[in-house]
Design goal:
The complex is a heterodimer of chains A (96) and B (389). Chain A is 36% helix and 29% strand. By secondary structure, chain A is α+β, with helices and mostly antiparallel strands. Classes of the chains: A alpha+beta (96), B alpha+beta (389).
Chain lengths: 96, 389
């Protein structure tokens, strides 16, 4: 996974907003061993935008502006987060 | 008092207090003796039986419950909450996919209970972790059952076989099973809201009528219960189990509190469908446990006469779904008939043809069976494949 990759949410993972937190709940066979994930505000922001229409890196300036962090930090955190989503099967690389 | 009768144990009182606090239903003037000694393990077991552990977890996490509870109690609530959250979310998602496929196949099917209360236009829970679901309940017309079953099988569900299936087959529901994402998921197809084979036979309502009178269609023409439909169904379902789980009272509470309710219309519909007594018992329990805003005059209009009301309160008091309470619960179900005439007719049916019906399906032992054998099976069928509550 790189910032040039295009990434999309996996269909078998459902996001639920509960008590101010976003939870990712796998509901397919493929995801059955993934457990549950709790996303913070930034994670939720990214998750909602992983629609497979543009490279992941396109989110860097949006994150930097929305959460007032420098672009280098936004880039590193974003890459780590989408890599984790990909590893756990919550999201995957798609053809642009 | 049907939820907390005079003889209620300290653990039951504690659980009611914790549940009430978790639901934000403590009112000024409520008194509770928090020096009352209790066994935390027993409270937890009761909470599991009443299916309110998820609610307790939310109450503890949010600070609504101010009482100190043992760390192990808190941890167990947390663990069960997350398991429930996952299972209910899976059930809702798969249930929605099943409903899509049924609609594509031209089957009119409406979700009931857990699924409908967690998802869609009638949702009154925002957290699947607080509303456990053992299965996805759907109601269809009798003529659509076979076709709906074929749709479920095409989706990988298998008909539930064995003793339970034998009991259900001649009744008013069929169960299907599929293991999804590590979760044992059951879908139950109901073609009536109470079975003609049950002690609630005096108010059996066919699925076709439920869909026509107590549901409304969305823009795509797919039915789901109206709030009155939900209230009546949950009350009837609770009656079917003598309100042995508080989660059904929580359902009723949430439905009552969701928005202003046309009480006159609800009472009129309950009267027309001959289900005033189940609605009375359910609303009385919700009012007692959660302080639901049910007007006294509405309850008075739904209640049976004073003699039956006293008997009903006595038999429902402390119902908890336990084996010991089953016999008393059966009497309570009889008493929930609309009139004494209904009660008498159902009792007569239960004594002969009803007993034969259950004996044929091995739910009850033959009437000439030895007492020892009878006592082993008195509580009803085993449920090796999961519950239908």
């Amino acid at each position: 996974m790189t910032l040039d990759s295009t990434c999309a949410r996996t269909a078998g993972v459902v996001a639920r907003r509960i008590a101010g937190e976003t939870l990712l709940v796998p509901v397919t066979r493929r995801a059955q061993d993934m457990g549950l994930f709790t996303l913070n505000e930034v994670g939720t922001f990214v998750w909602e935008r992983l629609d497979g229409t543009r490279p992941v890196g396109a989110l860097v300036p949006e994150i930097a502006a929305a959460f007032e962090v420098d672009t280098q930090r936004a880039r590193e955190d974003l890459l780590a987060f989408v890599s984790l989503l990909a590893e756990t099967g919550c999201a995957g690389e798609v053809a642009p | 008092m049907i939820v907390l009768p005079a003889h209620a144990s300290a653990e039951r009182r504690w659980l009611a207090h914790l549940v009430r606090a978790s639901a934000g239903a403590i009112r000024a003037g409520d008194r509770f003796d928090d020096d009352l000694p209790f066994d935390a393990e027993t409270v937890l077991r009761l909470a599991e039986r009443h299916r309110v552990v998820g609610l307790l977890h939310r109450g503890l996490e949010s600070g609504r419950v101010g009482d100190p509870v043992p760390a192990a109690f808190r941890e167990r609530c947390r663990s069960l909450y997350w398991a429930t959250l996952r299972k209910s979310t899976v059930a809702v998602e798969i249930g929605a996919a099943v409903l899509d496929e049924l609609a594509n196949a031209g089957v009119r099917a409406a979700p009931l209970k857990g699924h409908a209360l967690l998802h869609g236009p009638g949702a009154v829970y925002d957290d699947p972790g607080t509303r456990p679901m053992d299965d996805v309940d759907l109601i269809v017309g009798r003529d659509d059952v076979e076709r709906a079953g074929r749709v479920l099988e095409a989706l990988g569900f298998a008909p539930v076989t064995g003793r339970r299936a034998a009991r259900l087959a001649g009744g008013h529901e069929l169960a299907f099973h599929r293991r999804v994402a590590g979760v044992n998921l059951f879908v139950e197809l109901h073609w009536a809201w109470a079975g003609a084979e049950s002690l609630l036979r005096s108010f059996a309502l066919p699925g076709e009528r439920f869909l026509a009178e107590l549901c409304e269609d969305d823009a795509a023409g797919r039915p789901s219960p109206t709030r009155l439909g939900h209230l009546l169904f949950v009350a009837v379902h609770g009656a079917r189990h003598a309100f042995g789980r508080w989660i059904w009272l929580l359902d009723l509470h949430r439905l009552v509190e969701a928005a202003p309710l046309d009480w006159e219309a609800l009472a009129a519909r309950a009267r027309a469908l001959r289900v005033r007594r189940p609605l009375y018992a359910g609303l009385l329990g919700a009012r007692e446990l959660f302080r639901s805003a049910v007007p006294k005059e509405v309850l008075a209009g739904l209640a049976p006469g004073p003699v039956r009301r006293q008997l009903l309160h006595r038999t429902l008091a402390g119902a908890d779904g336990s084996q010991e309470a089953r016999r008393r619960e059966r009497v309570a179900k009889l008493l929930l008939g609309e009139s004494w005439w209904d009660v008498a007719r159902t009792a007569a049916w239960a004594a002969a043809p009803g007993r034969a019906w259950y004996e044929e399906r091995a739910v009850l032992p033959p009437s000439d069976a030895a007492p020892a054998a009878r006592s082993r099976t008195r509580g009803g069928p085993s449920r090796p494949l999961g519950g239908n509550r």
